[in-house]
Amino acid sequence: MTQQPYGEDPPSLRKSLGVVDGVAIAASSTAATTSIGIGLGVTAGVVGLHLPAIMLLAFLPILGIAGAYSRLNRVEPNAGNGYVWVGRSLTPWLGFLVGWVNIVATVAFLAYTTAVTGSAMLQLAGEAGLHTVAGLVLDPGSTAQTTAVGIVVLVAVTLTAVTGVRTAARLQSGLLVFEYVVLLGFCGYGIVTGPHSFRLSWFDPFAIPSASALAQGLLLSVFCYWGFEAAFTVNEEVRDPRDASRAGLITLVTMLGLFLLGSVAFQRVLSEQELAGHGAQGLAFFGDRLASQPLAALPLVALMFSAVASLQAGVIPTARGMFAMSRDRTLGPVWSKVSARYGTPATGTLLIGALATVVAALALVIPRLADMIMATVNAVGIVVALSYALTALAAAARFRGLLREDWRQGIRAVVLPSLSAAALLALGGYLAWSFYTSTDHLEVSADNGWFLLLTPALMIASGFLAAAWAKWVRKSPYFRTGHGTDADAPQLLATSN
Fold this sequence. Notes:
Layout: H1 19-30, H2 32-47, H3 51-75, H4 82-89, H5 92-127, E1 132-133, E2 136-137, H6 143-162, H7 165-193, H8 211-225, H9 230-233, H10 241-269, H11 272-277, H12 282-290, H13 298-327, H14 346-362, H15 369-398, H16 402-405, H17 407-437, H18 449-472, H19 491-496
Antiparallel strand pairs: 1-2
């Protein structure tokens, strides 16, 4: 390992990636198979048989966010992305908060995906006829058992991520090909042969039961799209920064197509009660309804591959984000240690894996896997919406001069990101308020509103405390407001096209 002392030129990462590698990393981070296999059932429990409508509706603000990421990346490619862009265009305090909540949200996501991976493996063991080990009955719905199995996988993928994003991208490309072939095959077959009639009302957002269901469904869908920006966290390791932008946008559009395909297929094959009632085992149930063994096990294998790939894809961008923060001395120097052999932040990658393991163990306070998934998804959805919104506002602030120079560019660079940010902030705020007013006491339960609100509140509050430490104890130069920013220069965007 090599460590660059503070005050000298910051360490850099090895450039080795292209568009396809970026798509592999972003698509694995978004984990379409996992989102379809688990997220659709969770979302159907909120919005009923309107999954296509909610996926389309959530795509609109996310598309505006993707445009903001792409434009900011063109003028300032940086592994810290939102942390750097928001800090320079708005305020370092909010910039640090974006970096921080992305870290803690991803660690929570890794803990959740660890359990999902273990559940898929235990389900596969059951399909193969293995139901007990040393007298222990294997239960894919047990948080303890699924976490124990998943931690073994987390350790393995973390070690793989240490060797470099190129190696990880190659592994994920292979996993993605298998996942998508299985997903397209089963969903296409389900659309053609499903017993339930196709209905245009599935695409009607006004038919969703209530405003609170609409808000929660949208944030759950935002969570499903979350991860496309992983392409921007490796933008210092691509040969051309525009490749990261292309990879992020390609991934996002691909996810929309897959989510719509999965939504329609699931609703053609499964009833509303079946959709909402199978949680982490939804994709396996879907496969069993369409085929007999061993073909019925293929969706479950795809889910396992998706979960494994998203574990690795979660470790990689988080380590890069903390690498960028360490370069600015907002985090300790250990996070910016670069391996002389692999050219990666190896120490940070290992520490992220260790943190995720600890959080996965702490999640055992929620014994049922389905409840743990619901609690995690709601908490992460709120903080991700906040992070996306602040990044979009940073783009609007940075390129506001375009409104005077070129109104068409100004609409795309300023107005659309601002509208997307407003929509996500309103959704997050409304959902937080609904959680707060839904109960009068706190208990550790996935259906307790105060508990669901407490987790994102702690994530955000801890971010401000960590920012204060970075500013006044570490005396980070990052907190020099506007340092290195030319927020009113429309030529920045013009020269990047």
